[in-house]
Amino acid sequence: MNGSWMSSGLCRTAGADELFVEGTAQNRAKTLCTGCPVRAECLAYALDGRIEHGVWGGMTERERRALLKRRSTVRSWSRLLEAARREHESGGAVVAERRTA
Q: Taking the complete model, does pTM exceed 0.85, yes or no?
């Protein structure tokens, strides 16, 4: 993932002190991600890069660690989240096609 999506993030004008926070301030930082058009790309970037600090894609470092632990077999979060987006946009047709194949 090359990061070209970064200029489209809703947080692009936020300061680091707003995104790299601890405790309850993380909940405020996560609200910046609500409705962001590149939320999935941002989250995939953080998961694939094993970024340990800050809020990325609406998830805190603790939430990302837990997700990585639960889904330890995922090799590319970028591919997984893109496939999920395509499936969602197609109304589940991709899943139906795979089941009949």
A: no
